[in-house]
Amino acid sequence: MNNIKKIALGLLVGAMAIGFSAFTNATAKKSPGAFTIWYYTLGSDQQTYTRVGTSDPDENNCVSAQSPKCVIGFSSDQGAHVNANSLPATPSYQSATNGVYNP
Q1: Measured distance CA(79)–CA(77) in Å, rounded
Q2: Tens digits of residue pLDDT in 66-97
Q3: Model pTM above 0.90
């Protein structure tokens, strides 16, 4: 009788382990070739974008003005600075607001 209880308990524990693992979320892993955006923010001169990296900047720091978009992004690094009047490529990302970035 003890062996039957041990087998039943073992099966129950195994079934619970499989059942619980079936309902956990898999963690998303970024593959090495995944799409990356390089973000640039518009400076107070309203002529130059400065690279801030691959983490999206807080657009709440955009001060509305009659100027180009506050934040833009490219799928490849365009260098430390980009001229707002002659962009090297079409941005992959553009903020909803025009204005300068004031961190």
Answers
A1: 6
A2: 889 999 999 999 999 999 999 998 999 999 99
A3: no
Please give the Cα distance from 60 to 16 (Å, whole number): 47
Q: Are 46 and 68 in contact (CB under 8 A)?
A: yes
Q: How many domains does the chain have?
A: 1
- Whether 86 is covered by a domain: the verdict is yes
Q: Per the structure block, which two tokens stand in for 45? A: 């001169």
Q: Is 70 exposed, middle or buried (0-12, 13-18, 19+ CB in 10 A)?
A: buried
Which residues form the domain of 65? 38-101
Residue 76 lies in a domain: yes
On whether the CB atoms of residues 57 and 97 are closer than 8 A, the answer is: no
CA 26 distance to own-chain centroid: 18
Positive or negative: CA dihedral 61, 70, 76, 91: positive
Is 74 contained in some domain?
yes
